[in-house]
Design a protein that fits this description.
Blueprint lengths: L14 E5 L4 E3 L7 E7 L2 E7 L2 E8 L4 E2 L1 H6 L6 E4 L3 E7 L4 H4 L4 H35 L3 H24 L5 E3 H12 L6 H10 L3 E2 L3 H4 L1 E4 L1 H17 L7 H11 L14 E4 L3 H4 L4 H10 L4 E3 L2 E4 L1 H15 L10
Antiparallel strand pairs: 1-8, 2-7, 3-6, 3-8, 4-5, 4-7, 9-11, 10-11, 12-14, 13-14
Length: 333
């Protein structure tokens, strides 16, 4: 790819350019030796695989893209688009060729090998990241999401039973004994127990206020019951919903909007204009809108969206928990 994690730094030459949001700055397979340093704004590096955009990285201030083609003069192996208005420093490799010629020949020999390995690794990463999307389109099923759902339900049921066994007269359970037996009983697993335990605390499924002082935890049965019900519904329907990071970020923008807090009762629909300040700058907004509309989580009408705020808040909570166990997609925030 054109950037491996985003090198930071400044170069002494180059010209300042301004790019509008949505502009494709670098196109995959084109021939160009221009390299860019981001002074302000964000850009997405992506590759196209089976007509599907695969996000490789999201770059911000001080990061560089286009550096591989700048040095080895090979066609671009990824595209870069502006997520927001950008201020860039553009450095032309053709104009800098005379300076690079002054470097020892062995330097270029090493660089060519390094760049070849980067490009080869980049292609393998793209294929691996695309396999899950391809599988969902062809087989109408996401085995990664299915495994996460089934395993989480097993974790929840096991935890629920063991908590009943370990709790004392006050309704709390000794943390270490509960965790150890849970670890022993779960056996071979595809998701991490440490992450699962952390989600229990983060989303207030267990109250750990007594943990530091007494080494005990309390279970919020209603909260756990809601999560278990959601898992069961997804499994029974065979939907296995696992929203993208961009959709979760978009929902978070909706929840943070002023309009969201105005509707309190289930069944009442809220409306939000797409040019609302809260969601206007959401990353990959159109992709998020398409995904959320496809799954009927929101309804898009002209320049506005409508949604059930209570249902949306619950969905966001459960999807955030599930997303903690998905490592197949790059976070875009």
């Amino acid at each position: 790819m054109e950037n491996q994690g985003g090198t930071r730094g400044q170069l002494s030459e180059g010209r300042a350019v301004s790019i509008n949001a949505g502009t494709i700055i670098v196109k995959e397979n084109e021939v160009s030796r221009k390299m860019y340093i981001i002074r302000k704004g964000k850009a997405r590096v992506y590759k196209t695989y089976l007509n599907h955009k695969v996000t490789i990285a999201v770059l911000g201030e001080g990061e560089i893209f286009g550096e591989l083609s700048f040095f080895d003069a090979q066609p671009r192996c990824a595209s870069v688009e502006a997520l927001s208005d950008l201020n860039l420093v553009e450095i032309d490799g053709d104009n800098s060729a005379s300076q690079m010629e002054s470097l020892p020949t062995w330097v270029f020999s090493i660089l060519r090998q390094v760049f070849f390995r980067f490009r080869e690794m980049d292609q393998k990463i793209t294929v691996l990241q695309s396999m899950n999307e391809y599988q969902k389109k062809i087989f109408k099923n996401d085995n990664v999401a299915k495994s996460v759902y089934l395993e989480l339900l097993r974790f929840v049921r096991t935890f629920e039973l063991l908590f009943e066994k370990h709790k004392d007269g006050s309704g709390s359970a000794e943390r270490d004994g509960l965790y150890q037996e849970l670890n022993d009983l779960l056996g071979t697993r595809v998701i991490g127990l440490k992450v699962f335990w952390r989600q229990l605390k983060v989303y207030d499924i267990i109250d750990n206020s007594l943990e530091e002082v007494q080494g005990k935890v309390e279970l919020h049965e209603k909260t756990l019951g809601g999560w278990k019900e959601y898992l069961n519904q997804e499994i029974e329907s065979e939907r296995y919903l696992m929203l993208s990071h961009s959709s979760l970020a978009f929902i978070r923008k909706i929840i943070g909007s002023a309009n969201f807090g105005q509707v309190k009762t289930t069944g009442q629909m809220a409306e939000l204009l797409l040019d609302d300040q809260a969601i206007r700058a959401a990353p990959f907004r159109e992709e998020a809108l398409n995904e959320l509309t496809k799954h009927k989580i929101i309804v898009r009408v002209d320049k506005a969206i409508t949604f059930d705020p209570i249902s949306l808040l619950k969905l966001y909570t459960y999807q955030s928990i599930i997303k903690a166990f998905d490592h197949t997609v790059i976070n875009v925030e």
